[in-house]
């Protein structure tokens, strides 16, 4: 790349380009609520994000950007295309195949011939039988969950209603496409950080570019932080597992992809937040209690499996959907982040590696982590997770 092209890359704000943000593909997109901000030049890539040749290394299509508001000044945000270039091409081909039987077509025309468009204005509610199994979020949806998703849909001016007929045709198609392709924005909208859920804050979308709040550094950067800091982070991770499993709303949110990359730590408050919510399965405990499927009230223990890959978990989505009491989140956090079984980027030992001599000698921490990961007693993980939360809280209080 010559100097002139390099300079031009720094000068140009590609986020004002309709084609670059794929606004030209709407309604086969994620929304338009932030398009004015994009087109007005209020959002710009941070330095290296402007160099397109670096996109080759940015497989996940996640960018850091600056967002400016006249009264609030400038702040850092994260932009996501919600898929790799290949995954985005695949969705175009799928839409074309559903509509025409061929992999290439006029995408906008094709959208109007898919199931995303068939739910016309006469349909009052988005119902489970229409979308069940489209993605992890709706692997086993209840009417209560779908009403919540529609009511909190942020890409419409008329949010607050769970009636589908109150959405415009294009908004309905965008909602359904997001639900089928990458439901992360809908998880962030339905379980918002403003209400205490441990997710990044959703800001808005333009075309196939979604904006979320910048939280802070990835959890991975704290792998070798001082012991006190790691204890605090581990305690918060176990609290997240508890909150997503047991809450007053009786929705169990199961994290199906748990790795150091999917969490970040608040730069100001030190709070741990889930920053990748694409693979979250939501089970409605009220519906399970009502329908009483086989063994619905038997506590379910996730099975530990030895694995030589990074961040692997074994689970059955159907079981997560049919039991009221499940230990999946404790298992996922303990195995993939905290215990000696956690492997990531060539390291082993987990976030709580190398404890101080007196803690290592006592042996309680290692015993609880082992039982939480690979329980030897019946219902051992449930008990170990509870005791581990209490023990980490005690350790955290002792070092303050």
TrEMBL record:
Main location group: secreted
Claim: Ligase is one of the keywords in the record: no
Domain (FAM69 protein-kinase): residue spans on this chain: 177-375
Keywords, alphabetical: Secreted, Signal
One Pfam short name: PIP49_C
Intracellular or extracellular location(s): Secreted
Name of this protein: DIA1 protein
Entry's family note: Belongs to the DIPK family.
InterPro entries in the record: DIPK2A/B, FAM69_kinase_dom
């Amino acid at each position: 790349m010559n100097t002139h092209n390099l300079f031009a890359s720094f000068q140009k704000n590609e986020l004002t380009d309709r084609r670059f943000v794929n606004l030209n593909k709407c309604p086969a997109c994620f929304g338009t609520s932030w398009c004015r901000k994009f087109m007005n030049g209020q959002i710009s890539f941070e330095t290296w994000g402007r160099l397109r040749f670096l996109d080759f290394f940015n497989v996940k299509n996640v960018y850091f950007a600056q967002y400016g508001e006249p009264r609030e000044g400038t702040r850092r945000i994260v932009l996501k295309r919600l898929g790799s270039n290949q995954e985005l091409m695949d969705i175009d081909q799928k839409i074309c195949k559903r509509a025409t039987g061929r992999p290439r077509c006029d995408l906008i025309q094709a959208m109007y011939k898919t199931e995303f468009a068939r739910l016309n204005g006469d349909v009052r509610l988005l119902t489970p039988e229409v979308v069940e199994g489209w993605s992890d979020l709706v692997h086993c949806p209840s009417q209560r969950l779908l009403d919540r998703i529609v009511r909190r849909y942020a890409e419409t001016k008329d949010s607050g209603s769970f009636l589908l007929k109150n959405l415009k045709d294009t908004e309905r198609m965008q909602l359904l496409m997001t639900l089928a392709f990458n439901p992360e924005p809908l998880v962030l909208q339905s379980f918002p950080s403003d209400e205490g859920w441990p997710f990044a804050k959703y800001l808005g979308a333009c075309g196939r570019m979604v904006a979320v709040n910048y939280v802070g550094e990835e959890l991975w950067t704290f792998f070798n932080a001082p012991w006190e800091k790691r204890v605090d982070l581990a305690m918060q991770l176990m609290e997240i597992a508890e909150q997503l499993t047991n809450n007053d709303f009786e929705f169990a949110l199961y994290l199906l992809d748990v790795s150091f990359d999917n969490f970040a730590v608040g730069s100001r408050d030190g709070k741990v937040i889930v920053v990748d919510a694409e693979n979250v399965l939501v089970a409605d405990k009220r519906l399970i209690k009502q329908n009483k499927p086989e063994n619905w009230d038997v506590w379910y223990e996730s099975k530990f499996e030895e694995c030589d890959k990074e961040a692997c978990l074994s689970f059955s989505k159907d079981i997560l959907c049919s039991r009221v009491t499940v230990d999946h989140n404790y298992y996922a956090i303990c195995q993939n982040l905290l215990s000696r079984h956690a492997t990531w980027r060539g390291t082993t030992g987990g976030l709580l590696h190398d404890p101080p001599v007196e803690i290592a000698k006592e042996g309680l921490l290692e015993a609880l982590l082992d039982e939480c990961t690979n329980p030897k007693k019946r219902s051992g993980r449930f008990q170990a997770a509870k005791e581990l939360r209490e023990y980490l809280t005690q350790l955290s209080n002792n070092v303050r």
